[in-house]
Specification:
Layout lengths: L1 H4 L2 H5 L3 H4 L4 H6 L5 H5 L3 H49 L16 E12 L1 E2 L7 E14 L4 E15 L3 E6 L9 E6 L2 E8 L2 E7 L2 E9 L3 E7 L7 E3 L5 E3 L1 E5 L3 E4 L25 E3 L4 E5 L3
Antiparallel strand pairs: 1-3, 1-16, 2-15, 3-4, 4-5, 4-6, 5-8, 6-7, 7-10, 8-9, 9-14, 10-13, 11-12, 13-16, 14-15
Length: 297
């Protein structure tokens, strides 16, 4: 057997029980310093290598599981703080809006006006004329009460153009019977109620020269909601139409009747024939909404 101990390949073919009997001195001479070397190449050695790999894999899985448990524990510790911080942020009250203020009494304010897309309801077959009005309004702030002021209209003018009627002009009448407009404090800002009587004149009706003049049967009424007064200025879109300002929503149709002075005789002009209403209405602006904004110059 000792002769065969110098032959390492021969050792590989030995049974584990035979290798275990190799003297330690001979093992050192042959460089076999560990029992693993003695068993290398044997079935027992192979089984041990498989066992070692399984142990390494098991340890790696244990380490990963340990890291996962630690991370989950840290998340559980942090989650209440994160949740409470999020809840606190959601429950924090929003800053209170700045309360609206009434304008100073005695000042005069000039406003730009536009009423684009107004339908002219007249005694004529459809389609009815559509008008784009632009103009201005000047108001003076007067004393009212503890929660409102009055707005007196000093000047009002709006103009539009139509091929059938030429220039159409709205203006304040010589005798204004409209109630004074008001601006009052509301639950969400300022509420303006604007009353406006007006005279309207048409340069012509078809080929017949005018003017054709009418007056409102009752003052028009509009309501606007402001965060501040005067309303912000208007701007112009690329197509030339106005934008911005504040919407003044019409509360009723603006109806016009013939004044005391006679208009030219024009049997074929739609302005010469009243609408079927019994109150003597010759034409109406049914939904005459108007945008208004302060004029800066």
């Amino acid at each position: 057997m000792l002769a065969n101990l110098t032959d390492r390949p021969a050792l590989r073919s030995r049974k584990p029980s035979e290798l275990a009997a190799v003297p330690r001195g001979w093992a050192r001479k042959l460089g076999i310093t560990r029992e693993r070397d003695l068993m290398a190449g044997t079935d027992l050695g192979k089984e041990e290598e498989v066992h070692d790999r399984r142990m390494t894999s098991s340890l790696s899985r244990r380490r990963l599981l340990g890291h996962a448990v630690a991370a989950a524990g840290m998340g559980a510790l942090l989650a209440p703080g994160i949740a409470s911080g999020t809840a606190a942020a959601l429950s924090s009250p929003a800053p209170a809006p700045t309360p609206a203020e009434l304008p100073e009494i005695g000042q005069t304010i000039r406003l730009g006006l536009n009423g684009f897309g107004a339908t002219l309801r007249v005694n004529a077959p459809p389609p009815l004329p559509t008008l784009n009005f632009v103009g201005s309004r000047t108001v003076k702030v007067l004393a009212g009460g503890t929660d409102f002021v009055r707005l007196r209209t000093l000047n009002f003018t709006m103009r539009a153009f139509h091929p059938m009627f030429g220039s159409i002009t709205l203006r304040d009448p010589d005798i204004d019977i409209a109630p004074t407009s008001t601006l009052e404090l509301g639950p969400q800002g300022l509420v303006e109620t604007w009353f406006q009587s007006m005279t309207v004149s048409f340069d012509r009706c078809q080929a017949l020269e005018g003017p054709f003049t009418f007056e409102t049967l009752e003052p028009g009424k509009w309501v606007a909601h402001h965060t501040a007064f005067p309303p912000p200025p208007q701007r112009t879109n690329p197509d030339g139409s106005p934008t911005g300002g504040t919407l003044y929503k019409a509360q009723r149709p603006v109806s016009y009747g013939r004044p005391a002075t006679s208009n030219p005789s024009a049997p074929h002009c739609p302005l010469s024939h009243p609408l079927p209403e019994p109150d003597g209405t010759y034409f109406q602006l049914p939904e005459f909404n108007i945008n208004q904004g302060v004029l800066l110059a």
